[in-house]
Give the backbone structure.
Amino acid sequence: MPKLIFDLLYDIINEFHNDRKTLLSCLSVNKFWCEITVPILWRNPWNNLTVSNEKFLLNLLIKHLSDESRNNLKNQGIRFSLNSYKKPLFNYISFCKHLDLCRIHGLVIRSEMFIIYDEILRLFINENNKFTYLYIPLDFNRPIHLFPGFKFCLSDIEFLSCSTSLDKSILSGLIGMCKYIRKLELRIKFNEALELSLIKYARRIQSFSLTKSPNTTDFLSHLFNLTSLRLNGDYGEEWNCLKHLSLPFLQTLKIGGFIQAKYLANIIKSTKGYLNKINIDIDHHSDINNQRIIQAIYRNCPNLKRLKLEIKNNNISELEPLLRSCKYLNKLHILKRNNAITNWNNCLKVLSKSSPTNLSKFKFDCRDIDEFQLDSLELFFDNWKVRQPMILQFNFYINLNIKYKDFMRLIDKYKKKGNIKYFVIKSAI
């Protein structure tokens, strides 16, 4: 087969690298398609892996074991089926670029074959493999830093997800390999040694995720080139490290838990108009603080495309300048927290009047459908007839009463008219 055709087919199949179902169907076309698809499928074999498929994957990994490893396990009481001695058609592990120790840990725990844990790890951690993504579980304590090939196979890591409470000997080994990391996801509090090492390479890091407030401010202040930031805080934590943080190239901001509004507003103000995705899922802000965040968004985010945010009842008037300023907004998710009251009828009026041309995807969180007046919904749908059809999702407690049935009839009416392209309800229960 000419290389040009091979390259073209590879590029086409690679477009479906996140679509496991399509990739699996490509395997059965013919041998040529199979040889192209297997490396793509095994680049991240953990992607969309279901519990029902875990046993199959574990059995396939066992087939990769050497005769020496198999005999050692056999001497320790492990019995293998005859099928497990049959060598696989490919060296599947050699194609893997995502080393997900969290999923491997889960495979072993659920199989109750704890004795094979280190043997499975050695299949991945050796001098024959190279990984770019590394995920380490919270309580991981296997001595992988002692495995031959540890430094070689992890020397090109670009993404690291781990807990800062990781065993010091493993952590010290990782510190020496930080120079290529561009995406970093840390859980629990900062480790001082890790922080000092990462500061050296901070300008290369483009994506950063952190749960719990760091002890110091030094590291975050060095993330000058960050394009994606995700923070999740616990109640009572003071995120002083965000006070003077400047992230001029930030494109994605995701916030959860308890983080002070004044700091979030400061981060948004420090960006230079690059922010295109904001997800703020918190439930303790006052009306004034909620207003502060909304105003920071519409004054500093002209290129915003996706927004997830609570809009408190007293701040619905702030929705109009937000919609007018963020002209590229195409997806809006309005949250509802605790027992807060939202005047959805006023909200729909503002959306009908001021939504930018590209906005067509909506998610609304509410307690139940009784919070909406059907005539307000009908007016909202009717006013949408000159726009591109909307994709609409409601999240509420489903109550099969008369109003719910009338609501569904209204939805069907405007689906038939073409005002609504796609509609879904997700129960809040």
About this structure: The chain has a mean pLDDT of 85. The CA atoms of residues 182 and 379 lie 48 Å apart.
